[in-house]
Design a protein that fits this description.
The chain is of the alpha/beta class and 174 residues long. It contains six helices and four strands.
Length: 174
Amino acid sequence: MDNNVILAVGSTLVNKCIIAFMFNFRGVGGSQGSFGGGVAEQEDVAAAISWLACQPEVDAGRMGLVGYSFGAAVALPVACSDEGVKVMALISPPLEPSQISQLKDCAKPKLIVCGTKDFVISPEKAELIDRQAAEPKQFELVPGADHFWCGREAVLAEKVAAFFSGLFGSDSAQ
């Protein structure tokens, strides 16, 4: 949650009047529990969505999910299966073949953003993810961006915020 990418995306969403709820997975920071191999963390995502949908200032009909790196791999199955999640943004998603195949059947709007200098997700793998993903989708390969988005956080955050604003409108969208 204290990551440069998450902070940039979260603050840009808030600046666009989009509610941003950020949390740590189990065992990270001050969160209780221990690492669950990416499976138990899906429960964390589902619990966060459930809690957020009950908040009076949140329009539960306009909720999206953003995940970065490991968080993108964890967010993908939840976003595809949870009816409350209407759209998703996957940033530098280190997806395995079984996870990429989940994108084939996921008809929710999705943004997939990777960098050309990412040492975790090569441009070729990013393009494979794009080819496998069902429509509707938007794919962005950002020139010069590495896995940590150093120096390109603002560009990334604007892309994510524009994606959500374009789908939900900019007035109090979640």
